[in-house]
Specification:
It holds the Pfam family Glyco_transf_20. InterPro entries: Glyco_trans_20. GO terms for molecular function: alpha,alpha-trehalose-phosphate synthase (UDP-forming) activity; trehalose-phosphatase activity. There is one protein chain. This protein has about 575 residues and is of the alpha/beta class. The chain has helices at about 40-45, 45-50, 70-80, 90-110, 120-140, 155-165, 170-185, 190-195, 245-255, 275-280, 285-290, 300-315, 345-350, 355-365, 385-395, 420-440, 455-465, 480-485, 520-530, 535-550, 555-570, and strands at about 15-20, 25, 35, 55-60, 85, 145-150, 265, 295-300, 320, 325, 330-335, 370-375, 405-410, 445-450, 470, 495-500, 510-515. It has a nine-stranded mixed β-sheet, with helices on both faces. It has a six-stranded parallel β-sheet with strand order 14-13-12-15-16-17, with helices on both faces. A two-stranded antiparallel sheet has the order 2-3. Strand 12, helix 15 (about 385-395) and strand 13 form a beta-alpha-beta unit. Bound molecules: adenosine-5'-diphosphate and 6-O-phosphono-alpha-D-glucopyranose.
Length: about 575
């Protein structure tokens, strides 16, 4: 139903919510603020939707923005970038991002349960940070809006948001109980730190108006954000006609608040693991319930969607359909939407004078030598040690290639406050040193290892230079590096060696697929990639490039938003692609 009282002329509003805002904010020595828009995948993905919709991005603006400067920062963010900030205290942000998101969900979703450090205080913080997001989004949104929540940092947000805008959700009650349960296992001081850090803990009663139950006898210290307190002394509830589903009741209450017809989408950029892995998570029910209040839930691959649905069946006992799940009278549609990149950024970037001259310099430097490129965040899911082991085996078995091939491995520093990432860094340093020590000479080093982010021009020149690209992720939601390499190879037609455990392997037909745990077959694939004839390389590349050009980031964003629009009964956002 159209939620704005039938006013066709009203522009459709799209609110995108992600943990990070797509703008990097810094302050110089003179106290002046600088804003830099990032050019990442999501930003490109939404360019299609922006043409036809009014668009706002809500997210965390980063640390170190003092209270006194926030008015200024907020105004500029909104006026210049359509961004709206959610401020979190440093400690809350740290426990939410490093703690729950990257020490619990990230390893589990990438099949590393051994790296998962479940800590109840991190769960409290995750829940609290999601709550802060929900408060900001619920204040911002109005009838008929579409809210698109991104990724594993915000999996409780759909439920909390629904609960805040409508005041009716059994799940709110359930999460509150869970909060009580985990509180018992956590040091009181930690609870006070995590929950007491922000002044809004008991504030959300303010949002309680027209027709929403209000409890005025809640224990001190209890989190009061939920609008679905059990009926009791001092509570009032709206008079619902008999037989309404929870969804219909939610919509009734939301309508009184001018917030009905809000459609919520969620997209997971990581894998969703098999239910056998997922069920290890102590708060497995809460996370599933957190996203089930969506109208549309998207994954990169069919397997991730299937794992999600079977987790809902096995953990929540819900019946599912191949394309979704009915829950509390609402149908949460579940679908597959593989993301892409904007290949023209690389094709055109390559034409730039600066990139061409850098490419020439690199070609001279590596004359007579083949180049394999690896580009990864320094993350244990990227299989960098496996890649290095495979190179070692390859050079051992094919000594004729020593001095004739180099691996340029760019490793972008990532999540350096998390212990597993520190351990990985030490492990990679050690391996690179050992392999270079073994095969290197004064004139030649087989591995060129850079632990830093490199500028776009340098990255494009490196991609164009390389005869092969090696992606060895042990799990990866999609892996866009493979797409970027293919887009930069219109001249050389280099070989793409790709892990079968990356989401991209489902789409990039024309790659040499490997199991990165099988060191011998990866070493063989390196050999195959280097020895492949030009005709075979060209025909592989053509297939790959056709795919990458068709399934772009913009096509992804537009397809998802169109589907969400369709579910709301509103007109589509515009053609995909
Ligand atoms: P993830 O999302 O897990 O980081 P992707 O492969 O999907 O993995 O995306 C990685 C992005 O980070 C790509 O756009 C890639 O160009 C960029 N990137 C990775 N390493 C570097 C580096 N050393 N310097 C600059 N950019 C990098
Ligand atoms: C993955 C996640 C993203 C995240 C990115 C970089 O792609 O799915 O949500 O933004 O990695 O990680 P970072 O922790 O630096 O944001």
């Amino acid at each position: 139903p159209q939620a704005d009282g039938g006013n066709d002329k009203k522009e459709q509003r799209l609110i995108v919510v992600s943990n990070r805002l797509p703008v990097t904010i810094s302050k110089d020595a003179n106290g002046e603020y600088h804003f830099k828009m990032s050019s990442g995948g999501l930003v490109s993905a939404l360019s299609g939707c922006k043409k036809t919709m009014s668009f706002t991005w809500i997210g965390w603006p980063g640390k170190d923005i003092p209270l006194a400067d926030r008015d200024h920062v907020n105004k500029r963010l909104l006026a210049e970038y359509n961004c709206y900030p959610v401020y979190l205290s440093d400690e809350l942000a740290d426990r939410h991002y490093n703690g729950f998101s990257n020490s619990i969900l990230w390893p589990l979703f990438h099949y590393h349960p051994g790296e998962m450090n479940f800590d109840a205080a991190h769960w409290l913080a995750y829940r609290e940070a999601n709550m802060r997001f929900a408060e900001v989004v619920s204040n911002f949104c109005q009838s008929g809006d579409m809210v698109w929540v991104q990724d594993y940092h915000l999996m409780l947000l759909p439920m909390l948001l629904r609960s805040m805008i409508s005041g009716e959700s059994a799940q709110g009650e359930m999460v509150r109980k869970e909060l009580g349960r985990v509180k018992e296992g956590v040091d009181d001081e930690v609870v006070k730190d995590v929950l007491g850090m922000q002044p809004g803990v008991a504030q959300s009663g303010e949002l309680d108006d027209e027709g929403v139950e209000i409890l005025d006898d809640v224990d001190e210290g209890e989190v009061l954000h939920m609008k679905d307190k059990p009926a009791g002394a001092g509570s009032r509830r709206p008079h619902f006609p008999r037989g309404l589903s929870t969804f219909q009741k939610q919509e009734m209450v939301a309508k009184e608040k001018g917030k009905d017809g809000i459609r919520i989408g969620f997209f997971l950029h990581t894998p969703f693991p098999s239910s056998e892995i997922y069920r290890v998570l102590p708060v497995r029910r809460e996370i599933l319930l957190g996203v089930l209040q969506c109208d549309l839930i998207g994954f990169h691959t069919y397997d991730y969607a299937r794992h999600f649905l079977s987790s809902c069946t096995r953990i929540l006992g819900l019946q599912t359909q191949p394309n979704g799940i009915e829950f509390e009278g609402r149908y949460a549609q579940v679908g597959t939407y593989p993301i892409g990149i904007e290949p023209m950024q690389f094709v055109e970037g390559l034409q730039k004078e600066k990139v061409q001259s850098r490419l020439k310099a690199l070609e001279t430097r590596f004359q007579g030598c083949k180049v394999i490129i690896g580009v990864d965040r320094l993350d244990y899911i990227k299989g960098i040690p496996q890649k290095l082991h495979a190179l070692e085996v390859f050079l051992t078995q094919h000594p004729e290639w020593i001095g004739k091939v180099v691996l340029v491995q760019l490793a972008i520093p990532s999540r350096q406050d998390v212990e597993e990432y520190q351990n990985l860094r030490a492990c990679v340093n050690e391996l690179v040193g050992r392999i270079n020590g073994r095969f290197g000479t004064v004139e030649f080093m087989p591995i060129h290892y850079l632990h830093k982010s490199v500028p776009f021009e340098e990255l494009t020149a490196m991609y164009a230079l390389a005869d092969a690209c090696l992606v060895t992720s042990t799990r990866d939601g999609m892996n866009l590096v493979a797409y970027e390499y293919i887009s930069s190879q219109s001249k050389r037609h280099g070989s793409m060696v790709l892990s079968e455990f990356a989401g991209a392997a489902q789409s990039l037909n024309g790659s040499i697929l490997i199991n990165p745990w099988d060191v011998q077959s990866t070493a063989d694939a390196i050999h195959q990639a280097l020895e492949m004839g030009p005709e075979q390389r060209k025909s592989n590349w053509q297939k790959l490039f056709n795919y990458v050009s068709k399934y772009t980031a913009e096509a992804w964003g537009t397809t998802f938003v169109n589907e969400l629009t369709r579910l709301s009964g509103l007109p589509p956002a515009g053609p995909a692609g």
